[in-house]
């Protein structure tokens, strides 16, 4: 303790000297702390009011959904603090919707989250955290990287991964962890948006997927969300741009992701890093918009790495974490006083959040060592000479024994001593509606994504044209049979390989599904049926255009029924291949390993398809069983050859006539039955269904992991009582 105290005193002296009146630049050069409505009147930290304890009173309204918290200051000076004496930037009109939302209180008590192997020295990612969030307020969870911010946010929202175990209690309106669908929204640090849709279209389709009722009723909800996030100027712009047009900037994209959750008008909104990848101007605009959003009554809880002074002044409460330990929870200005009481006052030239993170981020120890070496070689360089581990221990010990920690416990007790109104589910859109919406949205995306869909169509037609011109003019003699078998094999095999070009588009669809499914906007069965309905027109267009080219170029029989079977067979082949692509993409969820796996699978299936060696002559192990029987190339080629040659005869000289089956018997293994081509088509149909069942199992397994998070959190909470 003597060592900690000595290092703390050293830092106190260095920081105090930086902010003392003798060494300070005149206050009119700083806009460090400002009183509300006095943006042009800069005041310094020394001009801020004295810090005293406050009595906190919580009232639960009977029959209401909200809990009103009133702070009763002990002294007039503290009333200035509670009213806010940090910057209050100009809030633009129309930054939030005017409709009021019945907020909800959230309180967490002794919350501990354990993830095995997550930390080097301890499995506890969050350790005995206490805090609360009230309706109409902004509560920020701040700390350096790997401090447990996102884990704490996910724990409060009930979205921890399966490997995590949570202990403690979480209360919503005084009731243990009850947040039904639609009562809260969660915005992840990275949300997959649909670049080929405009902002209004994207939010409208999101509303159709989330909300029950008629389509026309959801337009007003979408306009409210656009109005709330100040997206009116971007409502008709494509999110991802088009051709030479740029898409939305990162700040507007982030606001679109938040607006998607506002469609449900949630009581509580959780946001993981709302300022992720934003510049200072976009960050300030984002926080001003969110501050205006709280005026509607919504409870806002989010994580943040650091912020500017202006942004810091918009927060109502701050939860400061380091290595999972809570170093402070309370009013934002009280955090400054807490650091000052612990011996680490904020220098006048420094932003509060920068000062906090400088004091508690252990990564700065390396910078300190570098600064000391620089100072030895170049003279005085920096006054930073504090070990961050000392600061963390000092701040944690000071907070535990402070009146701030006692005030938090008192507030939590008052918020949980009486159960308030339970949050009710707002209902979901029906599965049939969701399937239709997803199918229609996917068709709209296909019509605009030229590089993923229309370019693929052109490539299929070019490939069919190339194969057709190479094998054109074969005639109908017995000698043309082997070449025509080669042409059909090359056509089926190469088009299957070309289908791998659709992996990026499918991967994007899966990422959109995962993003929507995590918030229960979609489901595995809904996604599969919607994707199937939307892909059928595109695949049928490919099959018709490519089949017409190859069919007449290689000189197949000129009969309409045979041509239609060729088209239908190739369509089923594409449908099976699409299912295989979906299964592999769902398994890997990454483009490179998916492409590598699909190329390997297609090459193996091509080798076992019976062209290089007929099925009866293949080695029994692996190649015949199971590869030749699971290769969809085999059934497609068999069906196409049977469609062409069964019922056809070839003359050998003037006396002998052989059937098409006999002519093909040595080149490819087919059945002499007239119904065999339909049996092959039926096998392709079952394979298409089987691959989609596999995709459903993979997606449903992923969905069950997400849906079980709430149960695990509830069981962990109950085990502590």
Describe this structure in words.
By secondary structure, the chain is α/β, with parallel strands linked by helices. Among the domains are: 189 residues, 3-Layer(aba) Sandwich (Rossmann fold); 277 residues, no CATH class. Helix content is 51%, strand content 12%. It has 24 helices and 16 strands. The strands form five sheets. Strands 8-9-10-5-11-12 form a six-stranded mixed β-sheet, with helices on both faces. A four-stranded antiparallel β-sheet has the order 4-3-6-7. Strand 6 and strand 7 form a beta hairpin. Helix 15 packs antiparallel against helix 16. The protein is elongated.
List the helices and strands and how they pair.
Layout: H1 2-19, E1 54-60, E2 67-73, H2 76-83, E3 106-115, E4 124-133, E5 138-142, H3 149-157, E6 164-172, E7 175-176, E8 184-187, H4 199-210, H5 218-228, H6 250-262, E9 268-271, H7 280-294, E10 299-304, H8 309-312, E11 317-322, E12 325-331, H9 332-341, H10 352-360, H11 364-378, H12 388-400, H13 403-416, H14 431-448, H15 450-470, H16 480-498, H17 503-518, H18 524-553, H19 560-588, H20 591-607, E13 621-622, E14 625-626, H21 627-630, H22 632-645, E15 649-652, E16 656-659, H23 660-665, H24 676-719
Parallel strand pairs: 5-10, 5-11, 8-9, 9-10, 13-14
Antiparallel strand pairs: 1-2, 3-4, 3-6, 6-7, 11-12, 15-16
Helix pairs in contact: 1-12, 4-5, 4-14, 5-6, 6-7, 14-18, 15-16, 15-18, 16-22, 17-19, 18-19, 19-20, 19-22, 19-24, 22-24
């Amino acid at each position: 303790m003597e060592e900690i105290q000595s290092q703390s005193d050293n830092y106190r002296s260095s920081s105090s000297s930086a902010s003392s009146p003798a060494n300070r630049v005149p206050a009119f050069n700083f806009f460090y702390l400002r009183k509300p409505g006095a943006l042009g009147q800069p005041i310094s930290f020394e001009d801020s009011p004295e810090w005293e304890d406050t009595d906190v009173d919580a009232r639960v309204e009977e029959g209401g959904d909200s809990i009103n918290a009133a702070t009763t200051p002990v002294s007039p000076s503290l009333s200035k603090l509670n009213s806010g004496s940090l910057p209050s930037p100009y809030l633009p009109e129309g930054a939030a919707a005017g409709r009021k939302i019945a907020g909800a209180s959230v309180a967490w008590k002794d919350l501990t989250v354990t993830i095995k192997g997550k930390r080097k020295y301890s499995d506890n990612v969050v350790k005995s955290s206490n805090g609360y969030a009230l309706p109409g307020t902004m509560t920020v969870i701040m700390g350096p990287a790997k401090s447990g911010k996102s884990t704490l946010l996910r724990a409060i929202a009930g979205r921890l991964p399966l490997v995590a175990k949570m202990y403690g209690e979480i209360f919503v309106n005084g009731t243990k962890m009850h947040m039904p669908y639609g009562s809260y929204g969660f915005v992840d640090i990275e949300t997959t948006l649909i670049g080929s849709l405009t902002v209004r279209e994207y939010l409208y389709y999101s509303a159709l997927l989330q909300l029950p009722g008629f389509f026309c009723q959801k337009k007003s909800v979408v306009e409210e969300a656009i109005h709330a996030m100040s997206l009116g100027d971007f409502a008709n712009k494509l999110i991802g741009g088009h051709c030479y047009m740029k898409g939305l900037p990162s700040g507007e994209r982030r606001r679109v992701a938040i607006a998607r959750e506002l469609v449900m008008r949630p009581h509580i909104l959780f946001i993981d890093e709302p300022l992720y990848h934003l510049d200072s101007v976009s960050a300030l605009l984002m926080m001003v918009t969110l501050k205006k959003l709280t005026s509607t009554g919504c409870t806002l809880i989010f994580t943040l790495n650091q912020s500017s002074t202006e942004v810091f002044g918009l927060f109502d409460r701050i939860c400061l974490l380091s290595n999972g330990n809570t170093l402070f929870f309370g009013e934002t200005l009280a955090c400054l006083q807490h650091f000052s009481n612990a011996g680490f006052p904020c220098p006048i030239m420094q932003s509060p959040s920068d000062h906090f993170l400088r004091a508690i981020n252990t990564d700065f120890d390396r910078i300190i060592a570098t600064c000391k070496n620089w100072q030895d070689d170049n003279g005085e360089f920096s006054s930073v000479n504090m070990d961050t581990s000392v600061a963390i221990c000092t701040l944690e010990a000071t907070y535990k024994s402070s009146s701030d920690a006692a005030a938090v416990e008192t507030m939590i007790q008052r918020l949980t001593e009486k159960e308030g109104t339970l949050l009710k589910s707002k209902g979901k859109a029906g599965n049939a509606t969701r399937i239709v919406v997803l199918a229609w949205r996917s068709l709209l995306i296909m019509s605009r994504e030229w590089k993923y869909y229309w370019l693929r169509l052109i490539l299929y037609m070019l490939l069919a044209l190339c194969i057709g011109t190479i094998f054109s003019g074969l005639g109908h003699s017995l000698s043309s049979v082997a070449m025509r078998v080669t042409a059909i094999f090359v056509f089926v095999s190469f088009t299957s390989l070309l289908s791998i070009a659709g992996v990026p588009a499918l991967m994007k669809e899966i990422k959109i599904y995962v993003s929507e499914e995590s918030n229960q906007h979609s489901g595995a069965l809904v996604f599969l049926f919607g994707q199937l309905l939307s892909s059928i027109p595109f695949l049928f267009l490919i099959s018709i255009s490519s089949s017409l080219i190859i069919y007449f170029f290689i000189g197949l029989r000129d009969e309409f029924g045979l041509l239609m079977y060729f088209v239908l067979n190739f369509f089923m082949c594409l449908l099976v291949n699409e299912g295989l692509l979906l299964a592999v993409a769902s398994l890997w969820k990454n483009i490179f390993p998916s492409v590598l796996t699909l190329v390997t699978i297609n090459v193996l299936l091509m080798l076992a398809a019976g062209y290089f060696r007929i099925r009866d002559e293949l080695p029994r192990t692996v190649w015949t069983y199971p590869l030749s029987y699971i290769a969809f190339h085999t059934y497609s080629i068999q069906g196409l050859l049977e469609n062409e040659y069964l019922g056809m005869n070839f003359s050998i000289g003037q006396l002998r006539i052989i059937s098409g089956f006999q002519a093909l018997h040595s080149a490819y293994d087919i059945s002499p039955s007239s119904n065999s081509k339909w049996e092959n088509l039926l096998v392709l149909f079952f394979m298409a269904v089987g691959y989609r069942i596999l995709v459903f199992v993979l997606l449903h397994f992923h969905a069950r992991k997400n849906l079980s998070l709430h149960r695990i959190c509830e069981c962990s909470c109950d085990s502590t009582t």
